């Protein structure tokens, strides 16, 4: 496998549940060759070394004669565990004191404190999962919406890796055929059919490109869909944000231009996270502080997937609305035209705006807010995620895919402008290398440190 210098001989221990959190139970995780033996030395109950894998045992943890806690011990015998090593999970009562005592006792028996992400690192080093799957574990734990959960779960179960694996195998086949040609270079033979190779490379490029493109959507799903709430001061942007959030977050006031800064908040609508950005209006202003806000509004709008543009019918007559919409149209970002304060409008007054096809809401009275949420989901078209779709959400993966794509491009160029087999082989090997970087077939200690140090201790 990889050229790493990690030592996995020692037995490691860490608290796996959040430290300092309220809750009835804490789980202490032990992994390594000696995990069962070390736990057995402080456990009174059945002899753990004689028990089958995947069994749970009640007993006490003792320091000499002193009982520290009554616990449940779950046993996982190698290789049938997360880390592929002997592993034990000790469920104790959730007391900081008990946890410290138990971990200390385990360390006294020969275990050592685990580093951040070390359990998952071991799962990777012992072949239990590839690198992209290990990274998905972190995403899964961080997931806070149905969509981000679904992507992480898909990646953890290997969807992403499986696609790459078969691509790599096809490429390896060609690389070896071309390398064989090198051995016969005097005789000018071609073992690798160039048309077939070209077809394969094109096929792979399409998939790699699709994965690269999925990043934008995958990233949006993971981090939330950025939506800007815009409109002139006092149209009710903060009130709408509050209605979405169902809490008093942004300051609502009658003084025009109060929302000077941008405020961001997240809400979950039908499983998709939206990141709402409440902004100062785009009204031209002499106020310097507010003018800065306006600049920022335009910058923020450009990052949005969707703009909710609010109008106040008491301030904005139809032609005024039309001229503001013109400015929004220039940004070329999808937008929703919303007439707020509809509670103050008669049906007849509403008719005036009919040609603009707006949504009428009252942020203050919470009228039409649910319909607006539905419209948001429809507009971003992320509501029905296809579970079959493999999505890239990790910048490291996109970079590797981009490099793969570049190498493939060079291979294609090499075929069309005949270069010698050794150059062709080199470019194919490069593409293989970058694909391998994603799954960890090719990895370095630096890369692993970088990835796993971002995990919590106990993962
Ligand atoms: P912003 O400057 O666009 O953020 O506007 P605010 O949310 O601060 O609202 C300005 C004023 O309009 C406040 O007094 C709100 O109570 C009022 N307002 C907001 N939405 C509505 C609404 O739907 N109906 C009515 N009648 N007043 C509203």
TrEMBL record:
Sites where the protein binds GTP: 234-239, 253-259, 278-281, 340-343
Cofactor remark from the record: Binds 1 potassium ion per subunit.
E.C. designation(s): 3.6.-.-
Gene3D superfamilies, A to Z: P-loop containing nucleotide triphosphate hydrolases, Probable tRNA modification gtpase trme, domain 1, tRNA modification GTPase MnmE domain 2
Keyword field: Cytoplasm, GTP-binding, Hydrolase, Magnesium, Metal-binding, Nucleotide-binding, Potassium, tRNA processing
TrmE-type G domain mapped to chain residues: 224-381
Cofactor section: K(+)
Lineage top rank: taxon: Bacteria
Cell location: Cytoplasm
Pfam annotation, one family: MMR_HSR1
Main location: cytoplasm
Keyword Cytoplasm listed: yes
Similarity field: Belongs to the TRAFAC class TrmE-Era-EngA-EngB-Septin-like GTPase superfamily. TrmE GTPase family.
Annotated protein name in UniProt: tRNA modification GTPase MnmE
């Amino acid at each position: 496998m990889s050229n790493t210098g990690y030592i996995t001989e020692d037995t490691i221990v860490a608290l796996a549940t959040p430290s300092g959190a309220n809750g009835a139970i804490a789980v202490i995780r032990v992994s390594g060759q000696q995990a069962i033996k070390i736990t057995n030395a402080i456990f009174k109950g059945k002899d753990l070394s004689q028990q089958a894998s995947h069994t749970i045992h009640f007993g006490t943890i003792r320091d000499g004669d002193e009982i520290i806690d009554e616990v449940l011990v779950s046993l996982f015998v190698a290789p049938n565990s997360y880390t592929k090593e002997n592993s034990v999970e000790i469920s104790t009562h959730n007391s900081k004191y008990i946890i410290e005592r138990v971990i200390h006792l385990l360390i006294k028996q020969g275990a050592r404190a685990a580093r951040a992400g070390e359990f998952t690192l071991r799962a990777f080093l012992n072949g239990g999962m590839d690198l992209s799957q290990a990274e998905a574990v972190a995403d899964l734990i961080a997931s806070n919406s149905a969509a981000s959960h679904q992507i992480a779960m898909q990646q953890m179960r290997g969807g992403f890796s499986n696609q790459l694996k078969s691509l790599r195998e096809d490429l390896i086949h060609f690389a070896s055929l071309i390398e064989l040609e090198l051995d016969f270079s005097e005789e000018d033979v071609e073992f690798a059919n160039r048309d077939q190779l070209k077809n394969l490379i094109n096929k792979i490029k399409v998939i790699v490109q699709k994965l690269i493109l999925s990043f934008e959507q995958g990233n949006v799903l993971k981090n939330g869909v950025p939506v800007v709430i815009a409109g002139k001061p006092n149209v009710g942007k903060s009130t709408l944000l509050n209605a979405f959030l169902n809490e008093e977050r942004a300051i609502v006031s009658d003084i025009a231009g109060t929302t000077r800064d941008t405020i961001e908040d997240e809400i979950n609508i039908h499983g998709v996270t939206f990141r709402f950005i409440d902004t100062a209006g785009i009204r031209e202003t002499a106020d310097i502080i507010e003018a800065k806000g306006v600049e920022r509004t335009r910058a923020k709008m450009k990052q949005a997937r969707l703009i909710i543009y609010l109008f106040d019918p008491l301030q904005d007559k139809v032609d005024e609305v039309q001229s503001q919409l013109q400015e929004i149209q220039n940004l070329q970002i999808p937008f929703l035209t919303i007439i707020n304060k509809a509670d103050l409008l008669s049906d007849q007054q509403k008719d005036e705006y009919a040609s603009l096809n707006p949504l009428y809401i009252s942020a203050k009275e919470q009228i039409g807010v649910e319909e607006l949420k539905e419209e948001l989901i429809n507009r971003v078209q992320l509501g029905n995620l296809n579970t079959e779709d493999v999505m890239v959400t990790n910048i490291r993966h996109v970079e590797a895919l981009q490099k793969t794509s570049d190498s493939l491009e060079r291979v294609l160029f090499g075929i069309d402008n005949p270069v010698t087999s050794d150059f062709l082989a080199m470019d194919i090997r490069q593409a293989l290398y970058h694909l391998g970087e994603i799954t960890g077939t090719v990895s370095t200690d630096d890369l692993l440190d970088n990835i796993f140090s971002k995990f919590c201790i106990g993962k």
